[in-house]
From TrEMBL:
<dbReference type="InterPro" id="IPR013653">
    <property type="entry name" value="GCN5-like_dom"/>
</dbReference>
<protein>
    <recommendedName>
        <fullName>N-acetyltransferase domain-containing protein</fullName>
    </recommendedName>
</protein>
<dbReference type="InterPro" id="IPR000182">
    <property type="entry name" value="GNAT_dom"/>
</dbReference>
<dbReference type="InterPro" id="IPR016181">
    <property type="entry name" value="Acyl_CoA_acyltransferase"/>
</dbReference>
<dbReference type="GO" id="GO:0016747">
    <property type="term" value="F:acyltransferase activity, transferring groups other than amino-acyl groups"/>
</dbReference>
<feature type="domain" description="N-acetyltransferase">
    <location>
        <begin position="115"/>
        <end position="242"/>
    </location>
</feature>
<dbReference type="Pfam" id="PF08445">
    <property type="entry name" value="FR47"/>
</dbReference>
Length: 242
């Protein structure tokens, strides 16, 4: 096992794997990465509200790397990677339990920004929080949360906030879209698409790619992202049960 100390080395070892490159977060302070054989692992604290251990590579090498990395980072770091790999690792790594499967979607295609959407001011955070509480109470992105940088919003004719989306946990090579929410009374009007188009266009102006995560049981959201050019990949998370 060798430790990787440069973002370019992480990307090269992972063959440019988007999930790994995103998890590396440019190797900001506190992030560590390792490689062994064809496997790569990146431990990143406070990434999408969890201490995460992104892993990629062949199952045998990845299992060995996880066993070697665990004493370095501790069991609070939750592995994340391709679904097939995580299911295999849960079978062969002691103490590792499969948690959930979900989707990673990404795009590098230009997206025309939608009119009427703008970046919000920090003073708008309480209004964003109130909308999330009503429309997306399970959202990992929250105003003031670690790694949550800014919020975009679309207001109605009365000035009230109708839809939001966040730039959160973006890495130099991969911008990240999160915290999408629409007022339940305003759904069906294309507002989620509008705020997602705006944030995606803004992120693509600063990053080569943009990614997001979506639950498999949310086909409406997946359809919005697909219409904007995002393409899916099945990933999953696991955790160390003991």
């Amino acid at each position: 096992m060798r430790e990787l100390r440069d973002p370019a080395a992480v990307a090269a070892a992972a063959g440019g794997d988007e999930l790994i490159v995103w998890a590396a977060q440019g190797l900001r302070p506190g992030v560590r990465a390792w490689a062994a054989g064809d496997a790569v692992a990146v431990a990143c604290p406070e990434l999408s509200r969890r201490d995460r251990l992104a892993v990629a590579g062949g199952a045998r090498a990845a299992a060995g790397l996880l066993r070697a990395v665990l004493p370095e980072v501790g069991p609070r770091f939750r592995p994340v990677g391709d679904e097939a790999l995580l299911r295999r690792l849960a079978d062969v790594v002691p103490g590792l339990a499969f948690a959930a499967a979900f989707g990673w979607m990404s795009t590098a295609e230009p997206v025309p920004p939608a009119p009427g959407v703008a970046w919000l001011d920090p003073a708008d955070d309480p209004e964003v929080a109130a909308l999330l509480e009503t429309a997306a109470p399970d959202s990992y992105a929250r105003p003031g949360g670690a790694g949550v940088r800014r919020w975009a919003g679309l207001r109605g004719g009365d000035g009230g906030l109708r839809a939001v989306a966040a730039d959160a946990w973006s890495a130099p090579e991969v911008g990240f879209l999160a915290g999408v929410a629409t007022d339940p009374a305003a759904r069906g009007r294309g507002l989620a698409r509008a705020v997602c188009a705006f944030v995606t266009a803004e992120l693509l102006a600063a990053h080569p790619r943009v990614a997001l995560m979506v639950d498999h049981d949310n086909p409406a959201a997946a359809a919005v992202y697909t219409a904007l050019g995002f393409r899916p990949r099945r990933i999953a998370a696991a955790w160390f049960a003991g």
